[in-house]
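Request: How about a record?
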Amino acid sequence: MTKTVIFDFDGTLADTFAVLIEITNELAPEFGYQPVDKQQITQLQGLSSREIVKIAGIPRWQIPFLLRRFKLAFRQKTDMVKLFPHITHLLQTLKYAGYKIGIISSNSVDNIETVLTRYQINHLFSFVYSCSIFGKSRAINSALRAHYVNADEAIYVGDEIRDIDAARRSKIPVIAVTWGFNRVEILTKRQPDYLAHQPQEIIQLLVKEKVENVDRS
């Protein structure tokens, strides 16, 4: 029975796409990769993060420095970030249904909490963790241990291939949402446990599960 729902932030709860592309292009001269144009965006949405880093020619040792610069630049643009439609209703419904809710993201805790506070929903979350771009599985495992949650009691919700892969490595189910970065056909090929096209589908899945388990008890 699922008791804890862990969300990705960028592309899952918050529409940060335009901001991230803007920062990507601002940092291009500093880190020596080519800026992204509109035609390339569609191509990139069909790739994993590792493939994007490889195509951009960014050395692995440089990634932590790039991510740090991203977070600092993002801090100056948090007022541009909006939650996706119906996300607040989704979170409130899950909380009311008795779920513990958390966030694990490669964005910074400060940036995430700034947005959550602006929308007055920060109180809904039991935890918010930041991780490296390829360290999400380790962060999931740490969060489960810290909050005494078994793997079979948690589920992860994300919009990218790496979210699906991280959940798989942590041996927890994953819901892939189609309103974020990676295209639906790419997510489908990774065979997530569930595919959600709108927040209401997550409510229908998880609240139904909660009700069914209560009825059986």
